[in-house]
TrEMBL record:
<keyword id="KW-0808">Transferase</keyword>
<dbReference type="Pfam" id="PF01596">
    <property type="entry name" value="Methyltransf_3"/>
</dbReference>
<keyword id="KW-0949">S-adenosyl-L-methionine</keyword>
<dbReference type="InterPro" id="IPR029063">
    <property type="entry name" value="SAM-dependent_MTases_sf"/>
</dbReference>
<protein>
    <submittedName>
        <fullName>O-methyltransferase</fullName>
        <ecNumber>2.1.1.-</ecNumber>
    </submittedName>
</protein>
<keyword id="KW-0489">Methyltransferase</keyword>
<dbReference type="GO" id="GO:0032259">
    <property type="term" value="P:methylation"/>
</dbReference>
<dbReference type="InterPro" id="IPR002935">
    <property type="entry name" value="SAM_O-MeTrfase"/>
</dbReference>
<dbReference type="GO" id="GO:0008168">
    <property type="term" value="F:methyltransferase activity"/>
</dbReference>
<dbReference type="InterPro" id="IPR050362">
    <property type="entry name" value="Cation-dep_OMT"/>
</dbReference>
Amino acid sequence: PVPARWDDVDDYLTSTLIAHDDALAASIASLAEEGLPEIEVAPLSGKLLHLLARMTGARRVLEIGTLGAYSTIWLARALPAEGRVVSIEAEPHNAAVARRNLERAGVAERVEVREGRGADVLPALEGGEPFDLVFIDADKESNIVYLDWAARLGRPGTVVVVDNVVRSGHVVETDAGAQVDGVRAGLAMLRDDPRFEATALQTLDRKGWDGIAIALVV
Ligand code: DHB
Ligand code: MG
């Protein structure tokens, strides 16, 4: 049998491809220090978001679910000086921690942290320039609401990434609770809604067994 060495592989790939960065490390440390859940994206996934933004020439990025701004820093650093990340965070304490981490990373002027529930904040973004990249990483129960807004606030060509679509394999279960139901509804929407073309990848890293969906707004 093949030895289960995926954690060694994650360490190897991360240490090979991801340079140490004080501000990113501090943002991870701040989660435990400030009592936030340690559910930031893995470094290799943070860099994937960063590269997707650069590959697509993104100037406007929407993030739903800031937490401590780890992924936000990766995204902000992918943008030109006049680029903007709008990141929505429902928990005021998370938003305060995120703002400190963004300051420390030197990207605070490129990021607008909007405090509030996505369902309340997203309608206020209507009428602005379309977003080029949307990262959905908040309460999974609302994934279909967030996907609808991603399409409405995007344009043909907008890239949408949805975090946590595998949930340690629970995604295949039809009775695994509201969060998994939300993930499944989101994936069904990506299949059925003509505004999207989508795929998904499983991930196995320091955050465990999970996955991301990647969609194109068509
Ligand atoms: C959870 C949420 C996340 O966004 C994540 O990446 C991991 C876990 C959670 O709510 O358990
Ligand atoms: Mg997540």
